[in-house]
Amino acid sequence: MKKLLHPKAAKSSRASNTPLLLIALPGIIYLLINNYAPMLGIFLAFKDYSLIKGPFGSDWCGFQNFEFLFKTKDAFIMTRNTILYNLAFIIIGTAVAIFVAILMCELGERKRVKFYQAAMLLPNLLSWVVIGFIAYAFLNADTGFINNSFLAWLGLDPVSWYSEPGAWPAILIIVNLWKNIGYQSIIFMASISGIDKSLYEAAAMDGAGKLRQIRAITLPLLKPTVIMLTLMSIGRIFYSDFGLFYQVPQNSGALFATTQTIDTYVYRGLMELNDVGMSAAAGLYQSIVGFILVLIANKIVRKVDADNALF
Amino acid sequence: MKNMKRVLAALAAAAIALGLTACGGGGETSGTGNGEGEYDQVVYAYATFNNIPATEDLAPVQEAINEITREKIGVEVTLMPISVADYTSKVSLSLQGGEKIDVYQSLGNFNSCVASDMCYDISELIDEYGAGAKEVVGDNFLDACRVNGALYGIPTYKPYALTPMLIYREDIAQELGLDIDSIQSVNDITPLLEQVKSAYPNMTPLAPVQSGTIGLHMCMGDVDWLSDDYYNPVGVLLDNNTTVTDLYTSDVFKERAQLARTWHENDLVMKDAATTTTTAAEAMASGNYFGYIAAYSYPEEDTAASLQAQCGNYDIAAKILDDAFLSTGDINAVSWMIASTTDVPEAALAFLDLTYTDEDIINLLIYGIEGRDYVLNEDGTVSYPEGEDSTTVPYTAQLSCGTLGNFFKMYPTEGTNPESLAWEEAQNKEAETSVAMGFTFDSSSLKTQYTAVKNVISQYLPGLLCGSLDPDTELEKFEQALMDAGYQDILDAKQEQLDAWLAQQ
Amino acid sequence: MLQSKAFDRFASIFLGCLVVITLLPIVLIVISSFTAEDALIQNGYSFWPQEWSLDAYYYMVKQGAVILRSYGVSIFVTVVGTLCSVLITTMLAYPMSRKSFKYRNVLSFFVFFTMLFNGGIVPAYIMWTQIFHIKNTIFALLIPNYLVNAFNVILVKNYYSNNVPDALLEAAQIDGASEMTIFRRIMLPLAVPAIATISLFTGLCYWNDWTNGLYYISNEKLYSIQMLLMNIMNNIQALRANSTASLLGTGAVDLPGTAIRMAMAVIGILPILLVYPFVQKHLVRGVVVGAVKG
C-alpha cells in the first residue's frame, strides 16, 4: 500500500489519484478483510488438518487432499457436467434474456410492462429450497402435477421423473431459466434503455424496419454488457449453483449421471467426512481453474476489443 | 502487471497479519471462567428436536441444574441447545473456531468425530469421574466407544434394540381376513399385499419408511455393518461370521432386491419410493396405503398404539418380521464426548456422569421446570400443562429423549405402558449381539475411496431396494461401479483391522 | 410501420404467455398451501384441489409472535445493509471508472479477484468470531459476505464508463470541484438507475440470506425470517434423513405436513410481493432517467 502513494509518482497525477483512492478506501478495506484475509486459509488445502494441533501445527500432506477430486471415475462426469451446464446457461440464458429485454423495451412504458417485469423477476426471489418443493409438486411420480393432470389429460403414461436421468439436462436448464431470466433481462433492459434514441429515429427515417434496427443498433451496443457478463460467468465455470443441482433433483442418486457437479460431489463426500483440508482443496481447485480461464478469456477479449476487457 | 504484483504483495502482508492474530486470539477466549471463580465452567451442547427455547426461558432450567451441580460436583453448566439439523456442522465449526464447548454428542457420526480429533480420550478419567455412567451403560456397551484402546465417549443409555416390524391397517386386515399370523419373515408379506391390491385397486399397499428405503435393509438377518450403515460403504459380517463380506453380492441382498422388484412391478409399493419425501406416517394418514416396514424399540402393541395418531387415527397394528440384532454401530450412534479442546475434562466428565445417574438433572434437561413446562401425574408419568403442547411450553426437549444421557431415568410420558419399558430394557440385555461388538473401523486412510463409493451407492442402492431398478441387469453394473471406485480397498482394510482386533480379544 | 405494429403485437403476446408460464408454479404452491393435507397426498397437487383448508395457516398463526419478530429483524437488516452496501459500492466503482485514475486496472483486478477465490468458511469464521466478535450481534447479519459484491461494483463501474461523458467531469474539475464533491453532486445522482438495480439485488441477498445466521447467530431473538423457515425445513429434512429418525428410537415425531411447508414458503415471499411494486416503480423510473440522460 505504501508503495502506491510513493512520492516518486508525478505530482500532478498524485493530486488526482489520492482523493480517488480515498473514496475507494472503505470498499478496499472491506474487501481486504472480508475476502482477502480468509484466503490465507488456502494453505489448509495442503495440510492434514487436526483439531488438536490447530491450523498451523497440523502436518503438511502435499497434494493428498486433492486426490479424491481426480482419482475416481466420477471426476470426469462431474467436471463434464459442471462445464456443459454452465456453457448452456451462459449461451441460452444470455440469448433468452436479450430477447426478452428487447421485447420489453419495445413495449415501452405501458402499465403491463411493469407487471411483466415484476412477474418475471418473482422466481428470482425464491430460495432454492422452495424451488425444490415447487419442482417436486410438478414432477413427483404419484402426486405431481405433470403426471397427475397434464400427462393423464394427454392420455400418456406417467413418467418417474426422479429416476430418468435423460430428462434432467432439459429440466435443469428450464428451472434455471425460469429463476434467472427476469434478473438477467433487467440488466440488459438497463443497457438498452441507455442507448441513444436518436440512433433509432435516424434508422427509422432511412426506412430500416424493427428487426433491422435490432440487428444493426441494439445488438452491437449490447456487446460490452454481454462480454462483461460472459467473462464473469467464465470465472465461475467450475462452480455450480449448489441449490439447483442438489435441492431441485431432490438429491436423487439415480440422476447422478446428469446432475452431479463438482459442488454436489464435494458436498456429498465431505458432509460425513467433515474434513477441512479436503474442502479447502476442492475450493482451491475450482478457484484456480476459474482464474486461469478468466485470464485467458480476458486476454482474448483484450486482443479483439481492448475497451471491453475486464482489467 | 507490476502494479498488480505490488498490490497483491501488500494484501498478502495485511492478510497474514490478520490471520496470525486470528489464531493468537484463539487461546485467550478459552479461559472463560474468569471472575466467576470457584466453579469450573462446563458448556453442554445438545441437539434438540423441539423448538430452541428463548434465552430467558432457558435460564431457569440452567439455574436449576446449576443448583444441583454446584453442590454435587462444584461445576457450573451452560446449556447450549442446538437444532438437530445444524447440530453436527455447528459443533464442528465451533470447535474449529476455538469456541468453548466441553461436552457434545455424536448423531450417527461417532467415527468422523474420532477421525477429526474432536474427542478427548477419557480412559484415564472414567473410573474417577464417570463411574456412575460406566456402571449404567456397562463395560460391554462402553467398548463400542473404544478405538485402538482409547475411550472416546459414552453411549447414550436407551433402548438400543430396534426390531423390524410391519406396521399395517388393522381395519383392512380384518375386513379382508388377512392371515397376519402367517408372516414369519418379510417374504411372507407378498400374498397379503396382493390381496389388498385386488380388493382396493386404488390403494398402494406399501409405503416407503423414509426417502430412499422401503425398509428392506432392516430385514436382512443378522448384519453387523462394521461402523458403516445402510448409506455408507459397507463390508459387513453376515450371520456372525468373521469374514468381511460384500453385502451387495450376498444372496440375501439379491433376494431382497428381487422381492422389491416384484413388488414394484405389481404396483404393490409406492412408485416413487426411491426419491419421495413423503414420510410413512404422512402416507398412512392419507388413507391410500396399507402399511410400511420400519424398526421400533417398543413391543408390537405399544408401537401400534403410539403410531395411531400420526397415521390418521386408523386402526394400526404391528407385526414383528425379524429379531433385533446389536452391533457396535447401534450402540455408539449416539454417544457423548468430551471435546478435545476442553480445559476442564474432569469437570466436563463429572457433569456428563450426572446426566446418566441423576434423575433430577435428566428430567430438567428433557422436560424443563415442573409446573411451568410439564406436570407430573399421580402415576409418575408426565404431561404438558392444561392447554399447552410441545410447541407452546417455554422449554421442552422431549423429542430428544432417546439421545440424552439415560433414557430409563426419564419420567415416562402420559400413556406409556410401564411394561413396555421393562420389555425394552430386557431387549437391551437379551438381543443377539455381534461377534465384533466393540470393534470400530478406522477409515481415515480411505477418504478418497469412501467419497467415491458413497456416490456409487446412493446412485444404485435406493433404486435396487425400492424396486425401480432391475437387479438382473443393474446389480452387475452396481458391483462394477463399486470396484472402479475402490471398494475392494475398503473391504481389505476392514478385514485387516478386524483381524487385528480379534487377535487382541 | 406495418412491420412495427406486427412486432409490437408479437411482443405483447409472447411476453404475456411467458408471464403466465412463469407465474403458474408459484400459483401452484400458493394453492397447495390452502389445500387439505389429505387431499394433497391422496389426489396430488392440483390447481383446483378437492378440499380447501386453512389448517396450515392456523399452524402459522400459533407461531405468530416469533414470526413477527423475525420479520422485524429481516426488514432492519435488509434496509440498513442495502443502504451501506450501495454507498460503499458506488464509492468503490467511481474511481474505477475514471480513465485518468492511475490504479484503475489494479483496482478492477483487485475487485474481480474476489469473485474467483475465497478462503472457505473456517478461516472466515475464525476471523469474524475471534477478532471482530460479531457472534450473536446484529452485525453478524449485516457485515460478512454481502456488503460489497464484486459483480455489483463492476456493474456500476460499467454504467459510469458508458453513461457519463468525460467532458462533464472535466468541466466540473475546471470549476474547482473536489473529487468528493463530484462524486456526491454528479456521480451519485447520475447513477440512480444503476443504484436502483444494485439495491434490488443487494436487498434480495440480505432478505434471502440465512447462512450468516446459521454460522453466527444462536440467539433466537436475532433470527431472520429466512432462518426461521430454513430452520424448520432443515429440521424436517434432518428428521427424514436416513439415520436420524432411527436414532430417536421412538417414532413419535410430529412433522409439519406438506401444506404447512408450502404455507411457510408463501409467508417467506409475501413481504417481497407486498414491497416489490414500490421498489419496482423506482427501478423503472431509474431506468427511464438513465435513458433520458444517456
Automatic annotation (TrEMBL), chain A:
One GO cellular component term noted in the UniProt record for this chain: plasma membrane
CDD domains: TM_PBP2
The UniProt record lists the keyword Protein transport: no
Domain ABC transmembrane type-1: 79-297
Subcellular location per the Swiss-Prot or TrEMBL entry: Cell membrane
Keywords per UniProt: Cell membrane, Membrane, Transmembrane, Transmembrane helix, Transport
PROSITE patterns in the cross-refs: ABC_TM1
Record membrane topology: Multi-pass membrane protein
Gene3D superfamilies: MetI-like
GO biological process, one term: transmembrane transport
Membrane-crossing residue ranges in chain numbering: 20-46, 83-103, 115-139, 159-178, 221-239, 276-297
InterPro entries membership: MetI-like, MetI-like_sf, UgpAE/MalFG_permease
Family per record: Belongs to the binding-protein-dependent transport system permease family.
Designated name of the protein: Putative aldouronate transport system permease protein
Native source species: Allofournierella massiliensis
TrEMBL record, chain B:
Keyword presence, Transcription regulation: no
Domain DUF3502: 436-503
Entry-linked InterPro entries: Bact_solute-bd_prot1, DUF3502, SBP
Compartments it resides in: Cell envelope
Gene Ontology CC entries for this record: cell envelope
PROSITE patterns: PROKAR_LIPOPROTEIN
Protein family: Belongs to the bacterial solute-binding protein 1 family.
Protein name: Putative aldouronate transport system substrate-binding protein
UniProtKB/TrEMBL annotation, chain C:
GO biological process: transmembrane transport
Keywords: Cell membrane, Membrane, Transmembrane, Transmembrane helix, Transport
Keyword Cell membrane: yes
Major localisation: membrane
Domain ABC transmembrane type-1: 71-279
Source domain of life: Bacteria
Stored InterPro entries: MetI-like (IPR000515), MetI-like_sf (IPR035906)
Record's GO cellular component terms: plasma membrane
Protein localization: Cell membrane
Bilayer topology: Multi-pass membrane protein
Transmembrane portions of the chain: 12-36, 71-94, 106-126, 138-156, 186-207, 259-279
Pfam family, one: BPD_transp_1
SUPFAM superfamilies: MetI-like (SSF161098)
Family classification: Belongs to the binding-protein-dependent transport system permease family.
UniProt-listed PANTHER family: ABC TRANSPORTER PERMEASE PROTEIN MG189-RELATED-RELATED (PTHR43744), POLYGALACTURONAN_RHAMNOGALACTURONAN TRANSPORT SYSTEM PERMEASE PROTEIN YTCP (PTHR43744:SF9)
Name of the protein in question: Putative aldouronate transport system permease protein
Species name: Allofournierella massiliensis
